[in-house]
């Protein structure tokens, strides 16, 4: 198997493959560096993790300050169970609440509270500064 991999790595497409892998590693490295910087600053300044901030932001930018849990999970790339645990932590802090959908009693909404809006508004400049410093 190592011989087959070595042969393909030395073939005509090897430089394209190497460039592709280098691009992937660059992207993964930038993502890790930005995520770590965001995590550190948001936690130190506002007591929020990156995923918590992302959930608050998704709720804050909506016109009703609420989203179905399933839609929210997809937008922040979390499993349903991971989002449920995260929403539980935000609920404990008074930043969000849960509500049952009146049209479809099976649906549950995550709703931004006024305290959640305030924490998001306070944390947003920190998040934007880290993004500007890291990506700008």
Produce the secondary structure layout:
Layout: H1 2-10, H2 14-46, H3 50-60, E1 66-68, H4 69-75, H5 80-92, E2 96-100, E3 108-112, H6 114-135
Antiparallel strand pairs: 1-3, 2-3
Give a written overview of the molecule:
The protein has 136 residues and is mostly helical. It has a single domain, classed as Orthogonal Bundle (Arc Repressor Mutant, subunit A), CATH 1.10.10.10. The protein has helices at residues 2-10, 14-46, 50-60, 69-75, 80-92, 114-135, and strands at residues 66-68, 96-100, 108-112. It has a three-stranded antiparallel sheet with strand order 1-3-2. Strand 2 (96-100) and strand 3 (108-112) form a beta hairpin. The model has no long low-confidence stretch (mean pLDDT 90).
Strand content: 5-15%
How many helical elements?
6
Helix content: 55-70%
The structure class reads mainly alpha
What average pLDDT do the residues reach? 90
Tally of distinct domains: 1
- N- to C-terminal separation? 43 Å
State Rg.
20 Å
Q: Just give the CATH class.
A: Mainly Alpha
């Amino acid at each position: 198997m190592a011989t087959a991999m070595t042969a393909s790595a030395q073939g005509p497409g090897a430089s394209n493959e190497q460039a592709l892998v280098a691009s992937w590693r660059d992207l993964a490295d930038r993502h890790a560096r930005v995520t770590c910087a965001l995590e550190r600053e948001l936690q130190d300044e506002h007591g929020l993790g990156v995923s918590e901030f992302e959930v608050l932001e998704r709720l804050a930018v909506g016109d009703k300050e609420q989203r179905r849990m399933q839609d929210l999970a997809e937008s922040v790339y979390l499993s349903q169970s991971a989002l449920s645990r995260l929403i539980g932590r935000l609920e404990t802090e008074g930043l969000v609440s849960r509500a049952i959908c009146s049209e479809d009693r099976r649906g549950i909404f995550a709703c931004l509270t006024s305290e959640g809006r305030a924490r998001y508004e306070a944390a947003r400049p920190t998040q934007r500064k880290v993004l500007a410093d890291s990506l700008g």
